[in-house]
Amino acid sequence: MSGAPAPIPPARPVIGEAEIQAAVRVLRSGRVVQGPEVAAFEEEFATLVDGRHCVAVNSGTSALQLTLLALGIGPGDEVIVPSFSFAATANAVRLVGADPVFADIDPRTYCVDPRAVASLIGPRTAAIMPVHLYGHPAAMDELTPLAERHGLAVVEDACQAHGAALDARPVGAHGTAGCFSFYPTKNMHALEGGMVTVADAELARTLRLLRNQGMEARYANEIVGANMRMTDVNAAVGRVQLGHLAEWTERRRSHAKRLDALITTDAVTTPYVADGARHVHHQYTVRIGEGLRDAFRRELEVRGVGSAVYYPTPIHRLTPYETGDRLPETDRAAAEVLSLPVHPTLTDREIERVAEAVDSVAGSL
User: Fold this and answer.
1) Given 188, 208, 240, which residue is the final one in a domain?
2) Is the distance from CB of 138 to CB of 279 less than 8 angstroms?
3) Mean of the per-residue pLDDT values of the chain
4) Which of 311, 315, 284 is nearest to 300 (CA)?
5) Residue 87: count of CB within 10 angstroms of its CB
6) pTM of the predicted model, to two decimals?
7) HSE of 75 in the Cβ direction (CA atoms, 13 Å)?
8) Same domain for 115 and 255?
9) Are residues 162 and 267 in the same domain?
10) For the chain, which ranges sit under pLDDT 50?
11) 188 and 49 assigned to the same domain
């Protein structure tokens, strides 16, 4: 007698034999920090961002923080960010001594609303930090010209959007800088790590100084820096993962299209994709009617389908950032979104099970 099918997790990081062998190769080489693997990873990642300079660091949060430092943003400055994001977006701003200013989102894409950003620009504004949330590109066609008109830097938080694009231009190649994360649940990972992508060579050099105690040559410190280097073990794993990214991305996009077609209930709103946008579906995020999301999630679990909520508490309502700001679309999304499995290791039958469970739960509530 066969048992019930295995539960479907909301995420399933890939660590295969190739990643293990890459890590072992580096460990045996004795070159384990900021060595040839990091340099090769930076060069290879540049193909994903229109050939921009790439600077590898130890996390996506470090990428954001070092970028702000390299741009000279600090005390007295404001950076406009979405509240509907992971706290790291605002944490990076606060860690350099600047103040995050929270903007509401477009309810369709969940990315920051350019009209909300425009209304918040003031004399202290130094930068705009759009987040390409869930793998959907933010409205860079509006945000970049807006920033140019006001003389502002644009720091793209692309931590969830490796390979996403708007009007055929990849994320990480629109603004002043792009910042990526290689945490295990991302579309590709390096166990842990981050990358900054910039067009300006001098800015890239400053970033390299900042990540390595302010020095390029040993003991020749030029500026005050930190230790935010990527290890060669991380870079070696990242290089393997980068080689699979295109294939995995197409699987995510294919899974998303199938879910779009198979989920038939009107009780669930499937993800919107803007004209000209290439969505890479870091998450397949749906909306559930007001007050039903948590019950919906519990019933999916009963049916063997995992899910996750990103993000149940907007940043402007977290203890370090409570502002009393009124961000209605952000608050509504936080109460209604639910992310379903879409990762590339899913089988066709698992995708069908996800859709069947969604329709079944919708019919029972």
Assistant:
1) 240
2) no
3) 97
4) 284
5) 17
6) 0.97
7) 0
8) no
9) no
10) 1
11) yes
